[in-house]
């Protein structure tokens, strides 16, 4: 099977996944106790007001009727309007999702930059002082709740040293990068620790395997052995893990976005859940599902490239 | 089969040959579990008792970890939190480890359609909005730790599944797997007896990280009010409570933080040692 | 009725007592950190404080509330008169006032705005102006309100955000098929009558207001208000981040400072920690129905409720939850609400022995198990519930704390499926009728969904809604409060000010007791 058809097949496979997620989300959010009216009105919710709002939103219809309307609208490219924010869902997603994508991408880059070299140092100098220091440092990073790490970073680097702004997103691409550095670092701390541990274990496993001895025996220079053979093989399971963790980060950066006041998709999602803003939850879920599926596709491709047998 | 250099250790010498990391990690974990099972033996005060005469006291001999804004003794709260947090670490991850590893092994060996289907399941689960799930479960069962285990379990197993599947795929192409097949063993025997023990290392190593991650997830959910319920002491909730006092009463958040770091260190040292031990025993 | 001419009045109010000699400086943009973004900036159709507390900067009402939240001062109307029988209100429209696009504010705009506000199909605030039958434009500059019945609160209602004056033409010219769609589009490209106008809005992040060049009111220096060139709101949901940003000088103001940090910021050199008087009250609301979920409900007995009240040490709660910032309540409504009765002491002083004997009398000498709903993640509510859990264990009551999100909680108490819940209230109108209609008057929402009912209180409330004689109305409210405080479904815990941290260079900013953030007379040291 050719590489192109491998990709084509994977893209086709994305469709049922997304449909499945959509149906489950659609039903689940409507099963949550409370409705948009109760969420918005809170203490002051009067039965008449709640009924009026639900009728206007079409929420008094049977759930399958609502779903048919929704499907029809999606096919015409209309994700509907946000119930609480009164703006088109598509516009909200276009505003908020890129923020989270950028944040996640930066976190991923920082995590890789920290994890990959240090994992090799740690693995190849196993048991020595440098190994102990590296692992200890990553362990501390892994063990701190993100809201705590975020706040410590803000206090030290923003409030005291004034190197970075205290939260926010800024105007313009470079301002975004500048504003997102600390939050990305916060996310990267635990991500890099996970990757580092996995990669270190993999390198130790591979270094002990016979094909490395064989390569050395063939007289290849050790650096070449390291990059060509060890790195390649050690990376396979790390890439799988990396893809999964990125998927989790995309929908799970709520706390970081809250602490750093970043207007990202994570906050939009939780606000929408609390507000029972069904159209936003649904639209955002579709968008996230597409992005995450593409990331998984990318990791599959990388894995296939590292080890062509994976693609088969 | 892989050639093992050096002598295979005899059983009575195993203990002495255990990697140092495993021993240190084991000691930390043992101590943690002792605290978790018998917190009252070590905690000097009732962890939930208010003391209006001792609000926000800095660490002293009477209160080595200080007191919080209700005058509760932080040392006692940190110790009692071991009970909940060690539960979270173990219970939230144990089912995912077992289920995920077994499914991953089957998927990795079978490949083909099974694998394609599994891939879509993984995509669906990871892509699913986790908080919708947590809030849905909480709304059905009420808030508390059990819900968290369920919510975590639904997501978490796919990590073990994917890790193990990837590793099995590599292992099954190595010579010894072919040897097993050539010798006519049933696939289940090849997978679970021969391949899985070799392919389990990444999952085991990840498990140790995952237990620390589970505690952290508990703390994030606590921050959002969906984790352990008050007045129960749980490290993440303690840190979240102490967040507003970071500049004025640092002791409220620092000591629970240290407890997480030390326990996490125990898990990961033990995990590293275990991986090494499994490798050299093979 | 006081009739005061408008110009420079605001300035007098703000500066006469506090800062008499300070020379005002114009210009600059004030950056203000909020805990949450606004949702829908429509005076009539909004549902939440995040909108209400900002709206007064975008749209003026005919009458404006004074900074103490209790009095009236001229807004787009320069004077007003209520007829002898209380059924006609005549207002004189300000001459030369303009919308932010420079078009004149006409009688037609006023009539249209008030008709929209009182339409029972529009939003949830129309009950405040339900007494208005018709709105008539008379002569060149008069607006006459014909009421269905005398309404003692009508002038106060004309200061409330939902009666704000909007431009009819610009609104109707907005995109949209229905009035609702027009409102949604207009809210994002608004033309207003207030001191500021919306310039840009990045949802969840930043909202920029700029000064309305056509605003009518004059400042202390004789030139038009506002002094500021603009106000920028930044959404910073995490308390700690909001405070850090203020301390580092990136914000000029930050709202909703947690009580636990007030003391620290009062001592900080570069922070002006304000505690603006408010109408905010915090309480526990109990389900008093005979049965809850099919089981007998101990809390249905008034003696049990009194016992719980006596056993709740409010002083201690004020200490641990509000760090001493709050004060005890002597009625269900705040002491800043007109016609409030009480002496500033807690309705039920802490008395454990009395609580124990009341429990015995009620037939629960060993207490019972019950539960409380608190808002997930709310430190105040969790703290209160944790404290009550400790206090009530003294009378054998075992309290189970359940954190739920807002929508689930609303659903539970609308279904009557709860035992207790933590609650809070802030008035929107300088009158006791709003809180009383929700808390006491059972036909509205079952006395905050508690199932509590008093025919006497209901009758008194109905009568008070048409009582023009101030003293008689005060008498009615005195009795309502007596009934409610002695047997009602609430445990009144504390009232607390609005904690706002400002940079020392900010002057003239105020959050009035009704919650509105008023930037019209704010200015910055340049």
TrEMBL record, chain A:
The membrane topology noted for this protein in its Swiss-Prot or TrEMBL record is: Multi-pass membrane protein
Q: Where is the signal peptide?
A: none
Q: Which Pfam families does this UniProt record tie to the protein?
A: BPD_transp_1, BPD_transp_1_N
TM segments?
12-32, 101-124, 136-157, 177-196, 230-260, 280-306
* Keywords for the protein's UniProt record, in alphabetical order: Cell membrane, Membrane, Transmembrane, Transmembrane helix, Transport
Subcellular localization is given as: Cell membrane
The record's listing under InterPro entries reads: BPD_transp_1_N (IPR045621), MetI-like (IPR000515), MetI-like_sf (IPR035906)
Biological processes, Gene Ontology terms: transmembrane transport
Q: What is its main location?
A: membrane
What the entry lists under CDD domains is as follows: TM_PBP2
Domain ABC transmembrane type-1, by residue range, is 97-303
Q: What cellular component GO annotations does this protein have? A: plasma membrane
Q: Which family does it belong to?
A: Belongs to the binding-protein-dependent transport system permease family.
What is the protein named? ABC transporter permease
From TrEMBL, chain B:
Gene3D superfamilies, alphabetized? MetI-like
| Membrane topology note | Multi-pass membrane protein
Domain (ABC transmembrane type-1) ranges = 82-271
Respond yes or no to whether keyword Acyltransferase is given for this record: no
Q: Where in the cell is it found?
A: Cell membrane
Stated family:
Belongs to the binding-protein-dependent transport system permease family.
Q: Which protein is depicted?
A: ABC transporter permease
Q: Could you tell me which species this protein originates from? A: Pararhizobium mangrovi
Q: What is the lineage of its organism?
A: Bacteria, Pseudomonadati, Pseudomonadota, Alphaproteobacteria, Hyphomicrobiales
Automatic annotation (TrEMBL), chain C:
Q: Where in the cell is it found?
A: Periplasm
Hey, what's the signal peptide range on this chain?
A: 1-23
Q: Which family does it belong to?
A: Belongs to the bacterial solute-binding protein 5 family.
| Single Gene Ontology BP annotation | peptide transport
Q: Its GO CC terms?
A: ATP-binding cassette (ABC) transporter complex; outer membrane-bounded periplasmic space
Q: Which organism is it from?
A: Pararhizobium mangrovi
Q: Please state what the protein is called.
A: ABC transporter substrate-binding protein
- Keyword Transport: yes or no? no
- SUPFAM superfamilies from the UniProt entry: Periplasmic binding protein-like II
PANTHER family from the UniProt entry: D,D-DIPEPTIDE-BINDING PERIPLASMIC PROTEIN DDPA-RELATED, PERIPLASMIC BINDING COMPONENT OF ABC TRANSPORTER
A GO molecular function for this record?
A: peptide transmembrane transporter activity
Keyword Repeat listed? The answer is no
Per the database record, which ranges form the Solute-binding protein family domain?
72-444
Keyword list, A-Z: Signal
Write down the InterPro entries for this protein, in alphabetical order: Peptide/Ni-bd, SBP_5, SBP_5_dom
């Amino acid at each position: 099977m050719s590489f192109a058809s491998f990709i084509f097949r994977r893209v086709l496979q994305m469709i049922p996944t997304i449909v499945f997620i959509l149906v489950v989300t659609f039903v689940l959010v409507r099963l949550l106790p409370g409705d948009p009216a109760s969420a918005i009105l809170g203490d002051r919710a009067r039965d008449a007001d709640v009924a009026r709002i639900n009728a206007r939103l079409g929420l008094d219809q049977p759930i399958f009727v609502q779903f048919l309307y929704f499907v029809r609208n999606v096919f015409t490219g209309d994700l509907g309007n946000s119930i609480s924010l009164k703006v088109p869902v598509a516009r909200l997603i276009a505003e908020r999702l890129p923020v989270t994508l950028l944040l996640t991408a930066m976190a991923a880059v920082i995590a890789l930059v920290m994890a990959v070299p240090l994992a090799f140092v740690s693995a190849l100098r196993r048991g020595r002082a440098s190994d102990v220091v590296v692992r200890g440092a990553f362990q501390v990073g892994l063990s701190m709740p993100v809201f705590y790490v975020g706040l410590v970073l803000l206090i030290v680097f923003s409030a005291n040293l004034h190197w970075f702004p205290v939260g926010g997103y800024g105007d313009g691409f470079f301002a975004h990068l500048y504003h997102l550095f600390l939050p990305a670092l916060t996310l990267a701390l635990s991500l890099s620790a996970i990757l580092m541990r996995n990669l270190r274990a993999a390198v130790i496993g591979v270094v002990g395997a016979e094909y490395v001895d064989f390569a050395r025996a063939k007289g290849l220079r050790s650096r070449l052995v390291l990059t060509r053979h060890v790195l390649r093989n050690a990376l396979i399971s790390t890439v799988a893990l990396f893809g999964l963790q990125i998927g989790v980060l995309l929908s799970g950066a709520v706390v970081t976005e809250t602490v750093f006041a970043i207007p990202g998709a994570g906050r939009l999602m939780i606000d929408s859940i609390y507000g029972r803003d069904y159209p936003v939850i649904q639209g955002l879920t579709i968008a996230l599902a597409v992005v995450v599926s593409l990331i998984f596709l990318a990791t599959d491709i990388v894995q296939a490239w590292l080890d062509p047998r994976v693609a088969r | 089969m892989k050639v093992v250099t050096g002598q295979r250790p005899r059983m009575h010498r195993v203990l002495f040959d255990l990697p140092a990391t495993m021993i240190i990690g084991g000691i930390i974990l043992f101590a943690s579990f002792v605290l978790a099972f018998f917190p009252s033996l070590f905690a000097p005060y009732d962890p939930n008792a208010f003391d209006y005469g001792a609000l926000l006291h800095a660490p002293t001999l009477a209160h080595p970890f200080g007191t919080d804004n209700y005058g509760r003794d932080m040392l006692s709260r940190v110790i009692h939190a071991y009970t909940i947090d060690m539960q979270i670490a173990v219970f939230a991850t144990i089912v995912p480890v077992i289920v995920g590893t077994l499914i991953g092994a089957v998927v990795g060996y079978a490949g083909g359609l099974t694998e394609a289907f599994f891939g879509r399941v993984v995509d669906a689960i990871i892509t699913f909005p986790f908080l919708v799930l947590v809030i849905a479960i909480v709304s059905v069962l009420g808030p508390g730790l059990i819900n968290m285990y369920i919510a975590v379990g639904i997501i978490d197993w796919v990590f073990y599944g994917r890790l193990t599947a990837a590793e099995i795929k590599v292992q099954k192409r190595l010579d010894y797997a072919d040897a097993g097949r050539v010798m006519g063993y049933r696939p289940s025997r090849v997978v679970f007896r021969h391949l899985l023990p070799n392919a389990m290392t990444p999952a085991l190593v990840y498990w140790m990280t995952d237990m620390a991650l589970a505690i952290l997830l508990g703390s994030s959910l606590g921050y959002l009010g969906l984790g352990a319920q008050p007045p129960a002491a749980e490290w993440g909730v303690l840190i979240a409570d102490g967040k507003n006092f970071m500049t004025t009463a640092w002791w409220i958040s620092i000591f629970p933080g240290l407890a997480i770091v030390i326990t996490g260190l125990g898990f990961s040292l033990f995990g590293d040692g275990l991986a090494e031990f499994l490798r050299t025993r093979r | 009725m006081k009739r005061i001419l408008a110009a420079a009045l605001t300035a007098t109010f703000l500066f006469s007592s506090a800062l008499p000699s300070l020379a005002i400086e114009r210009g600059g943009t004030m950056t203000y950190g909020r805990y949450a973004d606004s949702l829908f900036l429509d005076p009539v159709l909004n549902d939440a404080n995040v909108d209400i507390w900002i709206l007064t900067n975008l749209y003026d009402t005919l009458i404006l509330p004074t900074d103490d939240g209790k009095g009236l001062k001229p807004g787009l109307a320069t004077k007003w008169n209520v007829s002898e029988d209380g059924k006609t209100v005549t207002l004189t429209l300000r001459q030369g006032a303009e919308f932010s696009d420079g078009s004149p504010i006409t009688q037609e705009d006023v009539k249209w705005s008030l008709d929209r506000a009182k339409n029972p199909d529009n939003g949830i605030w129309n009950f405040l102006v339900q007494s208005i039958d018709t709105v008539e434009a008379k002569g060149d500059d008069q607006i006459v309100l014909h009421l269905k019945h005398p309404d003692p609160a009508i002038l106060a209602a004309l200061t409330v955000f939902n009666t704000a004056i909007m431009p009819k033409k610009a609104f109707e010219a907005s995109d949209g098929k229905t009035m609702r769609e027009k409102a949604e589009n207009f809210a994002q490209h608004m033309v207003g009558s207030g001191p500021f106008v919306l310039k840009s809005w990045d949802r969840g992040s930043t909202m920029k207001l700029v000064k309305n060049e056509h605003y009518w009111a004059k400042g202390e220096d004789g030139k038009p208000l506002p002094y500021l060139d603009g106000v920028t709101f930044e959404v910073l949901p995490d308390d700690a981040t909001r405070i850090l940003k203020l301390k580092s000088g990136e914000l000029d103001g930050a709202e909703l400072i947690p009580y636990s940090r007030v003391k620290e910021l009062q001592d900080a050199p570069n922070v002006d920690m304000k505690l603006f008087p408010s109408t905010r009250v915090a309480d526990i609301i109990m389900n008093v129905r005979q049965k809850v979920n099919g089981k007998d409900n101990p809390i249905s007995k008034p003696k049990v409720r009194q016992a719980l009240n006596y056993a709740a040490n409010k002083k201690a709660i004020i200490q641990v939850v509000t760090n001493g910032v709050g004060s005890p309540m002597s009625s269900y409504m705040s002491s800043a609400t007109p016609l409030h009765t009480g002496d500033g002491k807690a309705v039920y002083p802490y008395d454990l022995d009395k609580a124990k004997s009341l429990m015995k009398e009620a037939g629960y000498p060993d207490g019972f198990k019950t539960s409380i709903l608190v808002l997930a993640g709310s430190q105040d509510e969790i703290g209160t519930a944790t404290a009550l859990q400790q206090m009530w264990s003294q009378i054998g009551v075992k309290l189970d704390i359940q954190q739920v999100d807002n929508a689930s909680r609303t659903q539970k108490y609308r279904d009557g499926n709860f035992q207790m819940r933590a609650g809070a209230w802030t008035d929107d109108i300088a009158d006791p009728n709003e809180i009383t209609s929700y808390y006491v008057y059972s036909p509205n929402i079952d006395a905050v969904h508690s199932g509590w009912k008093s025919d006497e209180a209901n009758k008194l409330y109905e009568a008070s809604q048409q009582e023009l004689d101030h003293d008689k109305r005060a008498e009615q409210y005195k009795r309502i409060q007596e009934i409610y405080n002695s047997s009602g479904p609430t445990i009144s815990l504390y009232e607390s000010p609005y904690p706002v941290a400002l940079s020392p260079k900010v002057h003239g900013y105020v959050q009035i007791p009704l919650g509105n953030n008023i930037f019209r007379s704010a200015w910055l040291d340049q």
